Amino acid sequence: MANPISDIKRMEIPAEEVEKNNLEELIKLVSENKESCIKGIDLLSAMNESGMLDAASALIKHRKEATKNVVQELNKPQYSATLENLVELFLLLGEIDVNEVSNVTDKINHGLKEAMEVPPSNQEKMNYIGMIKALKDPEINKSITMILSFLKGMGKEL
Questions:
Q1: What is the DSSP letter of 119?
Q2: Residue 103 · residue 111 · CB < 8 Å
Q3: What is the pTM of this model?
Q4: Helices (H), ranges, the chain
């Protein structure tokens, strides 16, 4: 019968070979992710030029102190209402139909653009009869109808 194995010798990989394997793996990863590496270097360079890299590094090194200071600042009475309103604002943002707001905003922007194109010297004072005549203009009528519909809908919720 064979003798039992009592001493296990682990294969030791020489440090030079481990270093060589690590470098080969790193070269392969850099080669496969060349574009990402270039973007990362560009980002770090831009952060360094603006001083943000030093600020970020300092913030990370002293994160406990920074967090403590931020929490102390936010616990001041002057910020409590703001923080409470911030939570409500985030909940409100979830209820807003962004597409509808975008449509209305586009219309408002178009109206402002047209209003700014009319030079002040061409803007004459409007009287009651002029306002009544303006209501016959289909574009003005559509806008007033939209505003009145908005006010009616808002009034239903009051």
A1: -
A2: no
A3: 0.40
A4: 15-32, 34-50, 52-61, 63-74, 77-95, 98-117, 128-134, 138-157
